[in-house]
Design a protein that fits this description.
The complex is a heterodimer. By secondary structure, chain A is α+β, with helices and mostly antiparallel strands. Chain A has 2 helices and 2 strands; from the N terminus they run αββα. Helices cover 87% and strands 0% of the residues of chain B. The chains are: A alpha+beta, B mainly alpha.
């Protein structure tokens, strides 16, 4: 799949639905209304949890790669 | 209206055809498009060149639609269901209408002493013509929509 800039918005909307980020409208310097997003506390917490889960997977795999295969 | 304004309008209309992409989503992406166009214009690109680049970077409408469907899949289903309901209602009203038309033509046939077969044959001929017209109209409309994409 080719990642494009427009695909960012559905992801942001999904995170907002999951209550991990919040959005607010503000007028940009161009005069147009612009939607800004910021991470909520629950979002930072969820990120830390995901990170620790990935670290667990990473460390487990790291230990497996280091093991020398026993061929006898 | 300048060429770029027309192109932006056309681009937005192409995306608006999708049930998964709502007006706030369109507004957000148009904002992104316009701001990026301004950035590229500052780097000495013409408005049309900038538009073409940013449109490409935002992505193909079909691929974008697929991503938006993942966020709100029920919006898509709800829209399909409402169209199905409209279809059923149209079918019911057309069948009632054709019943009325048959009675009316039977009445005309009796009033003007025309053969009874006239009443049914007129509607037997008219209905396929009406259906063919409706299908042709739908095809032409869909082609126009695809061209704007």
């Amino acid at each position: 799949m080719q990642w494009t800039d427009g695909m960012l918005y559905p992801v942001l909307h999904r995170l907002e639905k999951q209550d991990l980020i919040e959005s607010y409208l503000s007028t940009a310097e161009t005069g147009r209304q612009r939607k800004y997003y910021r991470v909520k506390k629950s979002g930072t917490k969820a990120l830390a949890e995901h990170k620790s889960q990935w670290m667990l997977v990473h460390n487990t795999l790291q230990q497996l790669w280091e093991k020398k295969p026993c061929l006898t | 209206m300048s060429d770029v304004e027309k192109q932006i309008k056309q681009w937005r209309a192409g995306l608006a055809d999708s049930e998964a992409i709502g007006p706030p989503d369109l507004e957000e992406m148009e904002s992104h498009l316009r701001e990026e166009i301004t950035h590229l214009q500052a780097a000495d690109l013409s408005a049309t060149e900038a538009f073409l680049i940013v449109r490409h970077r935002l992505g193909d409408p079909t691929a974008l639609e697929e991503e938006f469907v993942k966020v709100s899949p029920y919006r898509h289903v709800a829209s399909h269901l409402s169209w199905m309901a409209v279809g059923v209602m149209v079918y019911l009203s057309v069948s009632k209408l054709s019943e009325c038309a048959t009675y009316t033509s039977a009445w005309i046939a009796r009033a003007f002493a025309l053969p009874q077969a006239w009443a049914s044959s007129v509607w037997a001929m008219l209905m396929p013509i009406l259906a063919a017209g409706l299908i042709a109209w739908l095809v032409v409309r869909d082609r126009r929509r695809l061209e704007t994409r």
